[in-house]
DNA sequence: CTGAAAGCGCTAACAA
DNA sequence: TTGTTAGCGCTTTCAG
């Protein structure tokens, strides 16, 4: 027995609109709107009548209607390759922390499974006030297009068209690699990860090579092209084992990859770090729990997300915001538990 | 020098609307709408003119406007406690696979950090055509309210008001625990996890107790109340160690918890499974990579997500859809690598 | 084949 | 203090 004015079929659930409330309370829609906005201009008595109608019918203003009227959705979009793994979870949490403060909802999109990533992102752009885009998910050309109508900020990547927040992965990787060479005397080092996979990995590989070059060392072998997850690490371990003659150290593109190696190599008869040193990147919580504990580079991932969120939501942002990293020496590089300082001074541009 | 009719301040980026295109092409908005819908009724010549205007101005129909008009958002919402961890990532991927097929966007909400979860979910409900809700994230009363205006389906949980898709965690946990008791002769078993934490954990604990009861065994100690992540597992390990006198077996609420134990206990001088057996739950990829490899229960998590998505998007769904689980025997329970069948017949209601 | 206009739920300027 | 109304971007009957 609904009083709705329009087409309705049968049982589809329907929500009361502002007009329903207005009618129920015997006022105009404007008054209802004022009540939902706590506008002080509305009389106590009227206000109460409206509020009762609202409660009785269970009304909530449609955010769709509001968005259309406001020309603002109160939503922040986040574009990532995928949503697996602790790195992206941390990034999202960082963004979420500022979104919550500002009463903004979050909408994350994983492009990985979407056949047409660009189209999905455009869609998302329409439904949000700003976009955080992970480096490497979209071609520069598409970023340009998006930048025309949306406020976008890149995280862990760079672009000419949008501000970005990132860390100096290249310097950090170099520092890490230097440690392996200078402190532990390793000479045969190999990189694990797909250098072309993401801007982050590209930079880490570059830093790895910088360190080698500074010491006139050649790579012990081409990079082992693997993804950034634990399973890939396990696969890489098997390949390393089958190749025979392990390098002195394996520098992994991220922690998960390193953990995969760490967990698999011992079963194959290789001791870490005695036979081969392993390092990670990111300093996820797994790094500290692994055994041996993982030497890695700490990144303020949540802060990356928070800064990016603030920027995407309208705060002024330098065209390039670089956050500090910190080398974290544990045992997987060969340092003994005792002589391992828990942290060393950081590296960043 | 925009031709927009309305208030515009300075440099805020603006998108062309259907009216801009209509004006540019010298037609009515209705015609433009038809072109964007490939309506065959529009003449080739006109159609081309409109299309050119669209391309020239870079127009894309506003999904907000469309949603308001259609009364449908083409978006699926997913409500989870948090977005960390492989379990939820897999769940989302399952849902995403059907969302992609149907040209629907996905919007996931992690309630964990949101101070007012219920309000956030209501908001989300307005912006979506259907909602997948993880068991335990919302009180029954709130589910009732949501069900009035949204199509909701529960995953890994149950409710009187909405259909649900889940596994029989209780039966699976019992089968797993029986294995520990009957095959390995363990007598002193303890549960790790917070039974009140989520419906899933509640059921697993119940199954654990069922098995003990069937053998007239008492718990070796109260459940160790820890979260469901790796770090919690490491903490639990420390507590177990400090309590002295380890139980024969530790039955963990999920794989991540188990992995945390697995990685930490050896460093504390306890060998697995010789000194203490460990089991997980879920069969995430880490389970196979851990050493010793983790005995656990396989759950079709992606399928849970896929079924739930289909239901939330309008497919008919039984009020209770139960998916099969499968006991996965590896080495952390004490089975030798050789005599461990990689899978055993499943348990499910 | 095309256009005018009403309507989706809401806000805000303007009137009263 | 309250109401009227135009408008946000789009779809869709109904005329023409």
Radius of gyration of chain A over all CA atoms, rounded: 26 Å
CATH topology of the largest domain in chain A: Rossmann fold
State the end-to-end distance of chain A. 67 Å
Q: Can you give the helix content of chain A as a percent range?
A: 40-55%
The overall strand count of chain A is 11
Helix count, DSSP H or I runs of 4 or more residues of chain A: 13
Q: Give the CA-based shape of chain A.
A: elongated
In this structure, how is the largest beta sheet of chain A organized? Answer: 6 strands, parallel
Taken in chain order, the helices and strands of chain A follow as HHHHEHEHEHEEHEHHEHEHEHEE
Overall pLDDT level of chain A: 90
Strand order of the largest sheet of chain A: 2-1-3-4-5-10
Low-confidence stretches of chain A: 1-11, 339-349
By secondary-structure content and strand pairing, the structural class of chain A works out as alpha/beta
Regarding quaternary structure, what we see is: homodimer
The largest contact between protein chains, plus residue counts on each side, is: A-B, 59 and 59 residues
| CATH architectural designation of the largest domain in chain A | 3-Layer(aba) Sandwich
What is the CATH C level class of the largest domain in chain A, in words? Answer: Alpha Beta
**Relevant CATH superfamily of the largest domain in chain A:** Response regulator
